[in-house]
Amino acid sequence: MKKDLKKQMKEWRRHFHQNPETAFEEVKTAAFVADYLRGLGLDVHTGIGKTGVVANLKVGDGERVVGLRADMDAINMQETTGLPYASTVPNKMHACGHDGHTATLMGAATLLAEEKGFNGTVRFLFQPAEEPGKGAQAMVDDGLFERFPMDEIYGIHNASEIPEGTFHTRVGGIMASEDNFTIRIKGRGSHASAPHLSIDPLVTAAEIIMALQTIVSRNVSPIDQAVVSCTELYMDGVHNAIPSNVEILGDTRSNKEEIQALIEQRMQAICENICSANNADLDFLYTHEFAPTINWAEGVEKAVAVAKKVVGEENVNSNCDPWMGSEDFGIFLKHVPGCFLFLGAGKSEERSENTPLHNSKYDFNDDILMTGATFFRELIRHTLPQ
Ligand SMILES: [Zn+2]
Ligand SMILES: [Zn+2]
After folding, report:
1. For 303-318, what is each residue's pLDDT tens digit?
2. CATH code for position 125
3. CA 143–ligand 1 middle distance (angstroms)
4. What pLDDT band is residue 1 in, cutting at 50, 70 and 90?
5. Domain boundary, last residue among 290, 316, 348
């Protein structure tokens, strides 16, 4: 059976790879998942958070409930792998391996539905729109935790930077928050030869860009991780005219909610004060895109014990460095305890030789499908013992 399941997971994965759907449009993917899980006898609910799927599997009389989550969405990118099962949809591809996550969780559902070996309820969550960081919240807003209460939740993400078949996780912040900002500075344009007649928003912007660098270096504790990056600069001047308007756009990351709040508050104060010193007007926009993903100690303890059993102690790093990328799973962990882990997908020991995630040549490593599915099965047996 297991040999067949391995083959089947690979086929599912490649089917999803060939037919990618992006945020909140995962209609065919969700239908494929739901149909299969109904066939397994699970209690399947669709349309949660627009295109999300929740499938329940209850065994025995145990009252505890554990959630396992996969994400289904692809990204807007033209695939260049040239593979026989490459994306058939222009400008959409599975470059983050969510095709593999979906197939892995379907595999885990198969193992648990057929072999059981636990007492309680498992909820299989297939979430939409992880990439823009909106799908988890959409499921929560749709009553996820009221309709389908859970005691714990777990999720994995494939990681090509780390060797195939290894698990990496940590207690606390494992993936960063992402916030975006737009700083609009309104001055007064003038002839380039007559700066005294202007309120130069570009010089003000330059001061702001430099001053923002002091948030990480002077306000955030050196023990914590944070990034403040100005990434775009727009203005309406020409080479012989001082502009009237400048816009600075950018992105910040951090691993704790308090640091996230500190960055926002310091940015606003710096922008207001520099603009005021220069007589410029300010419009400051700051949006929260991703919550930080903060692992619970008890969730990590369980996940690490199970990972060690599945891949061996030497292949588990229970205190990896935090990653500054962002992940929608953090929203679930705000509601219930649990753990997010990376499952190594790197075919080469040499990090630089592996194709990175979000690269147009990315192709999920099918050799880790069974590792992921087995991990989930063992995790359920561990968290919902008979
Ligand atoms: Zn991803
Ligand atoms: Zn991604």
Report:
1. 999 999 999 999 999 9
2. 3.40.630.10
3. 24
4. low
5. 290
